Each structure stands twice: as C-alpha cells, then as structure tokens.
Amino acid sequence: MANHTNGTNGHEASNFSHSSPFPGFGTHAAHHGSDPDKWDFAPIVPPISLSTTFKQSAPGVCPKYDYSRAGNPTRTAFEECIAKLEGGTHAMATSSGLAATSLIINLLKSGDHILCCDDVYGGTNRYFNKVVSRFGIEIDMVDPTDLVHYETKIKDNTALVWLETPTNPTLKICDIKAIVEIVQRKFEGKQMPIIVSDNTFASPYFQRPLELGATLSLSSVTKYINGHTDVCMGVIATKNEDIAERLRFLQLAVGPAPSPFDCYLALRGARTLHLRMRQHETNSLAVANWLEKGEKAKFVSKVIHPGLPSHPQHELAKRQMKGFSGMCSFVILGGIEEATIFLQSLKVFALAESLGGYESLAELPSVMTHASVPADQRAKLGISDSLIRLSVGIEEPEDLIADLAQAFDKVYAKKQ
User: Fold this and answer.
1) Full-prediction pTM beyond 0.85?
2) pLDDT digits over 312-357, tens only?
3) Domain encompassing residue 287
4) Known catalytic residue: 223?
5) Cβ pair 78, 93 in contact under 8 A
6) Three-class SS state of 48
7) Residue 396 lies in a domain
8) Residue 229 DSSP symbol
C-alpha cells in the first residue's frame, strides 16, 4: 500500500506499508451470509424478518427457527458474514458489546479467575470489577506488555484470559500469539482457559485474533463493523465448536438478542467495512503525523498511534496487524482546562463518546468513557485529564487537520 501524504501540510502520513489484506476480504464482506437462494424469492439483500415466533410443523418440530431470542433469519445472515470475516466458523450476535462480554462471563463459575489486561474499555473494567467480582470470581488486571510479569499472574484456577488490542484508550498492543503460547505452556495437559481478544479497535479487516490462537474474538459492532453510529450491538466469533454450542445456548437462556432491524443495519455496514477502514487508517495516520511533527506539535507532549515509529510496540503492531484503524490519542499541554477548551472548540470533530463511525469524534476519557475507572488506576495507566482520544473518521484529512489546528489556537490564545 502506498504511503499517503497530507496535501495541505506536506507531512508524511504513513511510514508503514502493510501487507496485503486477508484474502478475499472485500468479496466476503460484500456477499457472505446473503445467498439469495436461501429464500424462495431469491432477494439480493437479505430481508428483515420481524416475526418473533415461527410456525411449527408439529409440536416441538421446528424447520429452523422457533423463537427470535434463539435465532432469526436476519441475525443469521449477519452472523455468517462476521464469522467469515473473523476467520471463524461461528458468530453470535448480541444487543451490545457489553452484552457479548456478559455472555462470555456466563461460561464461568464461582471460584474461577479472570486475568484481564489493565487498559481496557471503561465499561469492561466497570463490569468486571463492580459486577462480576460480586459473584465469587477473582479478577486481576495486569499489564500485558510485560510478558514476564504477566506469566506470574496466571493461576491454576484461571478460566478466562481477557485481552484487548489495541487497548482503549492508550493503544497498547497485546502480543496475542505470545500470550497464547504462555497460557498453553502453563496449562499443558490440563483444561485451557478461554482466551478472548477484544478486536473492536482493529476490526477484522486489520486483525484476526482467532488465527493467532485466541479462542474468541469479540467486537462492539456499534463501532467499526456497523460504522454509522446508529446501531448498538456486539458479536463474538470462534472456531471452537464446543464453546460455540455453549454460547448459542446462552443466547437463548440469558437473552441478549439484537433486533432484526439492527442486524440488517449492521450487515449493511459490514459490507463496506474494508473500504471505510482504509480511509480511517489514511486519515488517522495523517492526523497522528501532523500532531507529532506539524506546526502545532509544540502544544502536544505525546502522540499515541500504533502506526507511528515512535509507538513503543510499532514493530509488534506491524507483525500482528494488517494495518491501523482510526484511533489516535494524544496528551495536550496543560490539564483539564486546556483539554476542555480544545474539545469545545472543535467544529468537524464532535465531542462525544463512542468511536468507529464515519464521522470524527473526540473525547476526554478521564471524565467520559473511563470515568468509572478508579483514579489511581487511571493515573497508573496514563489516563490523565490531558489525554484526548480521537476517533478519526472518513472526512477529508485536510479538513480534520485544519479543525484541530484552529482548536489549538483557541486554547493557547486564551492562555496568553
């Protein structure tokens, strides 16, 4: 892939030519799950099946579906597409990313141990430490980039290893393959823990955790897979037949079913995932390079983007991923006052939580997405009141950079 440049400022937008995409990705995204011959009337676009129940040919005899909590034709089409894109054989859709997380937790029992990477989505941290911990499940939050220390935290009762890569919001890279190998050594000849990798930030276009040894790949569909900021959904993909069967049972028993209309919208979004991710990558690299080297770099003390050579795990990111998404974080000079003025001054970027949509968003994790993380944990992770997270959209990069530039001017004009 050729390097991109910012036409306005001339700063190099990428120092990385990543390898070719996963074979056939765009074709699978456009077609998988949509075989017209599934239906008698051969629609090119899968229909939205709104029925909550289905006629049985005899008591207890169901052709395929009986009740929409357990399964639905529109949901099946979406799940088949995502399973293919993730390099899996099964996918289970849920009503949100956290609903997918809770479905996985329902595989555990009291007395089990979760080893979770320390920098995760604030909702995951809150759910594990303020909800799951009340049910006799032990949780350790550990820096996954220190593999020697990480290995010492694995216990005999470790039942779930939870990774997130890149992490939210400090964009650490977890070495999925290395961690899988560590766990395999520890549990040789014994029941292996379930290894989950939250793939939300990368999307299956840039990373396939299942091919690196993870048991489950989880995504908040709300983000890149749907990509239009109008659906709240989650999905889990796997190649493990036994765990897929258990998760299917839990879909029915626990009930976090997404609506058929949301499944339709998410499938429509997935059709263009490969096109959108290329532009997210181009734009975020342009923004990250400008923040690090442009005329306003004097107002920034740190830029965090796995595609920058300055990222401490840049080489690992290049090995593990096919490229980078639209996520970029940076530390603005000053504190919460400067960060607040900056965020309120943006015009193209919207000050809002979430990420992965076509539009650019900016937020302050310490008081927004990660406000529920205890202050001492935030301080240890570097989630300060000066850390700003950007979800760079698919607008023109020149306009995004101009917007950031004028916001910096507003901050420091008021400070002078």
Assistant:
1) yes
2) 999 999 999 999 999 999 999 999 999 999 999 999 999 999 999 9
3) 274-415
4) yes
5) yes
6) coil
7) yes
8) S
